[in-house]
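Predict the 3D structure for this chain.
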Amino acid sequence: MAREWTGIQNFPLATQTKLLKLLTTLKEKERDSVTILVMGKGGVGKSSTINSILGERAVAVSAFQSDVPRPVMVSRERSGFTLNIIDTPGIVEGGYVNDQALELIKRFLLNKTIDVLLYVDRLDSYRVDNLDKQIIKAITDSFGKEIWHKGIMVLTHAQLTPPDCLGYDEFFGKRSEALLKLLDSGSLFRKREVLGHQVPVALVENSSRCNKNDNEEKILPNGTAWIPKIVEVITEVATNGSNSIVVDQKLIDGPNANERGKVFIPLILTAQYIFVGLVKKWIKDDIAKAPKSSWE
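Done. Predicted structure below.
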């Protein structure tokens, strides 16, 4: 059951005004609810990001436990609009994608509709590797590559000093570019599909020591008030015209190997019928042309 979104009152007035304006935009586009799925590795700040967006401690966060043990959905209602956010356990264990965790997430999502996917990683991770590619591929295999048309790349720990004398925006650009290239390859997009859609990237700083502007809004080193910004990006993705992902039993079970070749059965039978007919004709022709003995 959705609870009243009282946490919005914990934001400074400037942030409240922006958030309520975005909710109005969603309602004007005939959206009375949005469901957000949050996924990624463990310990990257998924739960903390949810709490920051809601302005309250909706999901337990512990320094001694990097993730929620199982998926959980938090629902908040405001002015006739419902925001659902689904927190999930990390999908990596021992340096590999945890198939059991992924299966648990998929079954939790049965009969739910995903309007936005937040794929969370850290801005202060300087490299991408094969594990990142495995994660992207696992999400794509589970929900279809269309999920990325509803995706946002979220980078936490965004209040940092870039290395190697890089400027903040330059470092952010390079980190984003590396992840988006990985997304293109890991999600198996064809070239024309990649050119037709760019997954947006949003920055997050969940620390209580995050800098603030004159309006008491949490800001990034480039001056962006990040909470209304990420909600703005969520609003854009939720209403970008792409179909939301409906998680049904067929999606959970995945493709049936027995079903893959059925479409070719009529063609194969037709080819066999034609081939058999030709063979019969060739045999009859050979018999007709064969020399006959005197008694025949």
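The longest helix spans residues 265-289.
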